[in-house]
Amino acid sequence: MNIVVQKYGGTSVGNIDRIQNVAKRIIKKKEENHKIVVVVSAMGDNTDKLLEMAYQISENPPKREIDMLISTGEQVSIALLSMALNSMGHQAISLTGSQVGIKTTGHHTKSRIADIDDSTIKKHLKEDKIVIVAGFQGANEESDITTLGRGGSDTSAVAIASKLQCPCEIYTDVDGIYSLDPRVYPNAKKLDVISYEEMLEMASLGAGIMHTRAIELGQKYHIPIIVASSMGEKPGTVIKESEKNMESAVITGLAIDNNDVMITLNHVPYSIRTTADIFDSLAKKDINIDMISQTSPQDNSVSISFTTPKSELSDTRDILAFLAKKYPQISYGINEDISKLSVVGIGMRSHSGVAAQIFVLLAKAGIEVQMVTTSEIKISYAIDSADQQKAVNLIADAFEL
Amino acid sequence: MNIVVQKYGGTSVGNIDRIQNVAKRIIKKKEENHKIVVVVSAMGDNTDKLLEMAYQISENPPKREIDMLISTGEQVSIALLSMALNSMGHQAISLTGSQVGIKTTGHHTKSRIADIDDSTIKKHLKEDKIVIVAGFQGANEESDITTLGRGGSDTSAVAIASKLQCPCEIYTDVDGIYSLDPRVYPNAKKLDVISYEEMLEMASLGAGIMHTRAIELGQKYHIPIIVASSMGEKPGTVIKESEKNMESAVITGLAIDNNDVMITLNHVPYSIRTTADIFDSLAKKDINIDMISQTSPQDNSVSISFTTPKSELSDTRDILAFLAKKYPQISYGINEDISKLSVVGIGMRSHSGVAAQIFVLLAKAGIEVQMVTTSEIKISYAIDSADQQKAVNLIADAFEL
């Protein structure tokens, strides 16, 4: 079977007209002799509206009930899209995450896909139906409805494509992957191709567009992922294996992230046990830590800084309070006004000195770097939010992004 | 276990404040040492809004997808109510119809409950949780989500109470069952008690408030049903077995129904086979027929009139067109401006002449009766909608309702 998985985001199905437009695109693909599985997000800001009601009721609603609540958003979309396809004369069937056999593990509101039972999808595809699957959701071992975290529909789509061993097309409100956010730097270039590795760094660093786990899955199962606009007919960007003989640019992209806060713990007792305990406490609550830096010990204590998403600040505060009680000598500060810039490029493997080059650029402009972390193909700088635009312009100009 | 099932309708959970109010009522009952199962409808006009979107997409959306769509309404309510209870310090858990093991048979959008696997409910009740169940929905053998038709939440509630052998409290926006609709006849009396049989007639005749199947279930399993307001503390009306030594009023209530249309088929060939075929065609599409009358044969053909809900007019038209093709001699008319008045009372068993008395009342006022049907404890009259108010006043005054 010539299968393809298509995923349409919330904006693409934001109203009835757009749902009908999506239905037409699906039919076009179907008439090119494809079997199609469609993964859909909730309509527009539906999820936010549902969450707003939840937080009117409780500051800290049980996460199981959050999942019960917000999973309805995708259920509405799949039903409406299936109706649109049926009304256009094509057999379609909508399936919730639970019905489609998406089995998850982990905590509510940020579950992970453990496995997909693809027999239901395959059965309907064989009957020549278009299968419409609710993205972002699944069910755990207790048959409770779970969700995969923001952007989880991408993960649903690539996971299904991985299981079916077919390409995955992600349709969204941008026409591809850019070297950096065109809203911040209007001359940003659209990329035709990007490697999984580069895209992973871009995504995990807040370049938006795609969910990290989705790209990891694509990489693991060698599934080409096409990111394109749900409106026009432009080709978009293909995410795939890096080509070895390709003469890469030093830097492929610049990711900008304003969604993190920086936490600094001072006077942390200098012992592996304490450091491990701190990060273990955070991990137990599933709090994502991104950048981490630690000073060298002085008077047998160290300072530890790390960044974490703003969305997890409430949980993080709880743990910080707990840790401050457990280790009375620790004091901590939270900086909510940081901006994280990350340059990403496979070319960095063969070009040294990029970090130094950027340090010089920023220093000349009087921009203070609060934290730096590096990996093989990326360097991240945490700076004051106020300096963001200036820093972006400097880097983008210097590296012709 | 001292279990009680409570059901709250859409108006009662129409906004966040009301949901919190409902949570408080539940907690009050819980603190009176009850184990509680709560069945909830969709918030306010949520179901209508969802249906509106569906009909913007298609005139005749697949009913399976309608169920997928509208079942989200109750799922939102149960999640929010559970959050409210948890935030007030009480353990609660929300369950969809499918999760709670409500197994249905029959057609989508009007399924019937085949069985309930009460093990999940009992497990949570044992753990002293308040169990919040999505009304109006279940799942069929194919694990497709199904709904029970308008007002189906009442059926869900009484079915669960029947399975658990406990009383069922239906909380709504009226404070009990009235002899007739107080909006039509302001002096209508609230009843303290009404028998299942009388209530069945009232409900099936469009007196609103309660779903017929819910009352049938209560009668079958001897479950007392209490109908009361979700706002105040007034006692409401108890629906239960009729007390044999009770000296009943001749007429307990008057039901008014404007939701039916009258179909008249003329020149129907006079044969059992044809008549059976007509009603069989309607039954196959699950169209509810209420009043039926047939003229005595003339020239070997008869006229048949029947009433059916306006909501089923579209399906009914399809079948009429089909029948008119099959039996070219048949002509048919549809009267959408009829009003059905039904007087109901166990007392009619021992009092004859009620039908005649009402005929005289109506005739004196110049009101033409289009159709009459009678049962042991009720008489229904179809009249022109324009005559409705006059007829209601005449009957209510005459029988002191």
From TrEMBL, chains A, B:
Its EC number is 2.7.2.4. The keyword Transcription does not apply. Residues 263-340, 343-401 form the ACT domain. The lineage of its organism: Bacteria, Bacillati, Bacillota, Clostridia, Eubacteriales. Pfam families: AA_kinase (PF00696), ACT_9 (PF22468). Tetramer consisting of 2 isoforms Alpha (catalytic and regulation) and of a homodimer of 2 isoforms Beta (regulation). Gene3D superfamilies: Acetylglutamate kinase-like, VC0802-like. It catalyses: L-aspartate + ATP = 4-phospho-L-aspartate + ADP. ATP binds at K7, Y8, G9, G10, T172, D173, Y178, R183. InterPro entries: AceGlu_kinase-like_sf, ACT-like_dom_sf, ACT_Aspartokinase, ACT_dom, AKii-LysC-BS, Asp/Glu/Uridylate_kinase, Asp_kin_monofn, Asp_kinase. SUPFAM superfamilies: ACT-like (SSF55021), Carbamate kinase-like (SSF53633). Substrate binds at T47, E74. Catalyzes the phosphorylation of the beta-carboxyl group of aspartic acid with ATP to yield 4-phospho-L-aspartate, which is involved in the branched biosynthetic pathway leading to the biosynthesis of amino acids threonine, isoleucine and methionine. Pathway: Amino-acid biosynthesis; L-threonine biosynthesis; L-threonine from L-aspartate: step 1/5; Amino-acid biosynthesis; L-methionine biosynthesis via de novo pathway; L-homoserine from L-aspartate: step 1/3; Amino-acid biosynthesis; L-lysine biosynthesis via DAP pathway; (S)-tetrahydrodipicolinate from L-aspartate: step 1/4. One of its GO terms (molecular function) is aspartate kinase activity. Belongs to the aspartokinase family. Keywords: Amino-acid biosynthesis, ATP-binding, Diaminopimelate biosynthesis, Kinase, Lysine biosynthesis, Nucleotide-binding, Repeat, Transferase. It comes from the Bacteria. This is Aspartokinase. It is an enzyme of class 2 (transferase). GO terms for biological process: diaminopimelate biosynthetic process; homoserine biosynthetic process; lysine biosynthetic process via diaminopimelate; threonine biosynthetic process. It comes from Alkalibacter saccharofermentans DSM 14828.
